[in-house]
Structure formats: C-alpha cells, structure tokens
Amino acid sequence: MFEIVFLGTSASAPSIQRGLTAQAILAGEHRFLIDCGEGTQRQILRSGIGFKRLNHILLTHSHLDHILGLGGLMSTFARWESIESVKIYGGKPTLARVHALLYGVVLDYERLDIEIKLEELKTGEFFNTKDFTVSAFPVTHRGAGCFGFVFQEKSRRPFLAEKAEALGIPAGPERGQLVAGHTIMLADGRTITPEMVLGDQIRGIKLVYIGDVGRTDNIRDYVADADTLVIESTFLHSEAEEASHFGHLTARQAAELAAETGVKSLILNHVSRRYRESAIIEEARRYFPETYVARDLDHFIIRRDQPLEKLAPEVVRARAAQAEQEDKG
C-alpha cells in the first residue's frame, strides 16, 4: 500500500486555493517528500503527516517553484525537529542549485546541527527495502537532469495457511523460513519446500510520479501498467502549442498517455490558475474516465486490486489536529 498526500498543486505560482508543488509519499515506515515549493513546511503541518521520518527528499528538477521551500524546511528540521540527517536526491543541475541555495544563502551565516547529503540521481533503482523499491527515470522538460519516479512494491507469493495446516507445519519460525523461500525439514524428517505452501506470485503496487514534462513518447515504458500515475497538467489542449514551447503537457495528453499504457487511475497535478478545475477534469475524462485533479491536502490511498481511495476532508482535519497535539506534547 502507498499513500500520497498533495501538499501543493499549483503550477509556477501559487493561487488562493493552491500552493506551490510538493507531495509526500507514505510507504510503511518510510516517508518521501517529492519537490519542495515555497510554503511546503506549513502544508506539511496542515496535512497532519508531520515532519517525523520525512528525511528523503526527491527533486524532479531545478526550477524554483519546485525547490525554493528547502531552505526554510532545512532550518526547521535543524532547530525544531529531531531529524539528524536528510538525503536530497536530484539530477546534477538540480543539486548544484540546491547547494547554492542552502550553503550560499540559508546556511551562509551559521552551521546548523543537521547532516544534509546531496545524492545525484541516475536512471535506475536508488532505494530498496524488503517491501518496495524506488527508481528514477529521465523525463524531458526545460534543461537537463529532470526525473520521474517509480515506487514499486515487490512481488510476493501468499502463504497458504490451510496447506501448511494440512502438512502439519507448526506455527512459528518454520513458516517464516518457507515464506522467505527456504526449504525446511520437519521433526518427523519430512522435507517441505516453499512450492508446497506458497500461492501464485502477485505483482506489487506500482505508483509513478512525474513532475514537469513536455513529452510522453519516451516515458511510456516506465508508466506502463501503473496502478496510479501522477503527472502534470499545466495546460488545456487548446493551448497545446504553448504547452510544447514551455515543456509542459495538456490534460488531454496526460489522459491519452494513461489510456494507452494500461494505467488504472490518473491524478493530474501542477494545475495552472488560468483554468477552472472543472474544465481540466472534463477534458481529461473524455480520454480517460478514471481521472482526478489533485487539490491541496488531498490524501489518496493506493491498494492492490482496489479503486483509488481519497480520504474525506474531515479525516484529514482530524489527523492534522492530532498531529498538532502530539507536537505540543
């Protein structure tokens, strides 16, 4: 299961309803911040997820509306939060700009008690746990070093408890070894292989996140069969020529990509304040019905073989209130 919390959903400049781009991905005990526009740290508090364990920051590219909030966030982490180390991942041009921001401006006058590691992204896997991986892939925008991300749960074979019972396998470490793929020997001398108690392999959930992007033909393989695709929708198709000039997509192009690559659900992000949300969703759903337009503080849950779930606003508000009380305590 993955969760995605939209902290800021505007394109280029904030509006009354939308802050600059930032998203949090929650995956078990791990948390990732994708991009960090101006005002992100306040949105983190409003969302109810808090700062704890939010120490992996993935940057899609170097434009200021995606990175300018890092200065304030790092200062808050160092002064107020028990976060000792943060990893910031990005392309080489992005990290150069982040280094200039953090060490030429924010940290120029003092040294904060926090370790900041800048990790250059390359195409391929860069984060691996027992349950999921995170990989980066190149996307085309304005300038070099732009990336999208794939969060992929690892495939698994379910343990068939009824077969284990029938074979007389006791509850305990023996079953754990079988799940891990090891053959065991029972006390009566019988050999039990994993094949005897494991079901067919189940593919894990695939979540693809893409920030600003101007082409779709070179990302189709990365997007293919995603359970959820999050991608920008800065323009409507009536301005397709302008979108191409600035390295952005239209709602129609994003929806066509989802329809043609086997995506199950589509969330549009990076929304321009020049358009009404209803116009964006109307255009996209003509080509891909399972489309949503993200709003600030929207919280979606992605589960295997289930429809995309959006938490009700009152649940989000309750979580935020609980997080505030925990911070005060």
Give a written overview of the molecule.
The protein is α/β, with parallel strands linked by helices and 329 residues long. The protein folds into 2 domains: 2-156 and 201-328, Metallo-beta-lactamase, Chain A (4-Layer Sandwich), CATH 3.60.15; 161-196, no CATH class. The protein is 29% helix and 25% strand. It has helices at residues 40-47, 64-67, 70-80, 92-106, 161-166, 173-179, 220-223, 240-245, 251-260, 277-285, 313-328, and strands spanning 2-8, 22-27, 30-34, 56-58, 85-90, 115-120, 124-128, 132-138, 147-153, 184-185, 191-192, 206-209, 228-233, 265-271, 291-293, 299-302, 309-310. The strands form 3 sheets. The protein has an 8-stranded mixed sheet with strand order 6-5-4-3-2-1-16-17. Helix 10 (277-285) links the parallel strand 14 (265-271) and strand 15 (291-293). Helix 3 (70-80) packs across helix 4 (92-106) and helix 9 packs parallel to helix 10. The model has no long low-confidence stretch (mean pLDDT 91).
Give the topology.
Elements: E1 2-8, E2 22-27, E3 30-34, H1 40-47, E4 56-58, H2 64-67, H3 70-80, E5 85-90, H4 92-106, E6 115-120, E7 124-128, E8 132-138, E9 147-153, H5 161-166, H6 173-179, E10 184-185, E11 191-192, E12 206-209, H7 220-223, E13 228-233, H8 240-245, H9 251-260, E14 265-271, H10 277-285, E15 291-293, E16 299-302, E17 309-310, H11 313-328
